[in-house]
Amino acid sequence: MQIKDLENKNIIIWGMGTEGIAVKNYLTKHKLAKNIYEYNDSDGQNILEELAKKSDVVIRSPGVSIYKPEFAMLKKYGLEITSSSNIFLSEMKQRQTKVIGVSGSKGKTLSVSMMYHMMKGMGLKVALGGNIGKALIELIDEENDYIIGEFSSYQASDIKNSPNIVMFTNLFSVHTDWHQGHEGYCRDKVHLAHKADVAVVNSNNPELIKYTESLPNIVYYGKANGFYAKDKELFYQDEVVCNIDNLQINGNHNMENLAGVMTVIKTLGLDWRKALSFLPSFEQVAHRLQDVGVIDGVRFINDSISTAPEAAISAMKSFDNNMVIISGGTINQQDYTEYAKFIEANPKVKIAITLFQCGSQIADSIRKYVTRDDFVLIEAEKLSEAVDLAFKGIKLAKGNLVLFSPTAPSFGYYKNFMERGQDFINCVKKLAK
């Protein structure tokens, strides 16, 4: 569905969050719709049905699962169901603008941010949108040669067209409720590339390989014939082309994300060496292994973006310090076995503090697998309590790092990971007073 198909239509916008508001503003600015009706889940299904009787189109926001039973009712009334991602990709298909879509369970935001920074540094007409930057629908009116979009599984689940190039970072078990299970999540995530010209795929993630192997035109990264990461270094074939010590980012695992980004840039036919020369000026993205500061010799790291145990494992691997890890959020069908086994095998993790809804689940896994005499498990109720206990505990354990890597979403406690991360930062600031 293109913009012209919305002209003089009665339109329901389902979900009035950030993207829903952007859609309404765009439709209003261009005087496209005959009538615009706003609907949120809290309004009730009866209201949705009454709106459906007098409407033509539903534009769903990403948070609205395509598996909701209400969609059957909407189709019964003959409504066309779309999303702003669908509208954006349909419009871009008619133009010469190349869209690069980046998706994956972890690493999306840092990947698109690095890519945008380098391409902008090269003087290219490039924009950043999706889950970061502007809403995609806001980019339709701009004149760009390239648009880099961060796409969630929510956005990817029902798109009709794909970006020109899609990069996948990895696949872990997250967002399973929305997608009715892990298999649905993986299927919906990979759907982003069903019509892509090229899919750039991480060869080091078996789950990702499994679900993408049927895609046409796959280019793998992480292999010796292209870009791949080893510890702190990025290689192109047998040549070291970058070292994380020369960058302003934390986490050796992010060099793997960089390998994917450079593969995309090379696939676009751009001068990848020139692009890489701009990376040292790139600064760490907030809430992603963000260095919050040092208090009395203790360093605090905000990794609020972490919504999977695998992300927390990668975060712990990023530091050589003796540390406390703080984890917990909403129960999301996660398995914490490998998380606990990693702690058992790594004596630098001196203390684990769990909290929120899935805190007891994490603690149970730790009690089952972690038997080290030099390790302490603490169950807390509030983040402020966890930060205070971590600060006191790590000093007694002769360590100097507190890592907040939640391993789960936190719906019901915070609006999003940004608000959660800011709460952690605020708790740290209180310690300094």
Q: Please list the strands of the largest sheet in the order they lie side by side.
A: 6-7-5-8-9-10
Total count of helical runs of at least 4 residues? 15
In CATH, what is the class of the largest domain? Alpha Beta
Which structural class is indicated by helix and strand composition? Answer: alpha/beta
Binned strand content:
15-25%
Enter the CATH topology name of the largest domain.
Answer: UDP-N-acetylmuramoyl-L-alanine:D-glutamate ligase
- Rg, Cα atoms, Å: 22 Å
Q: What would the average pLDDT be, to the nearest integer?
A: 94
What's the assembly state of these chains? Answer: single chain
Main β-sheet: number of strands, strand sense, barrel status? 6 strands, parallel
Helix fraction bin: 25-40%
Shape assignment:
globular
Q: State the distance separating the first and last CA atoms.
A: 55 Å
* Low-confidence runs of at least 5 consecutive residues: none
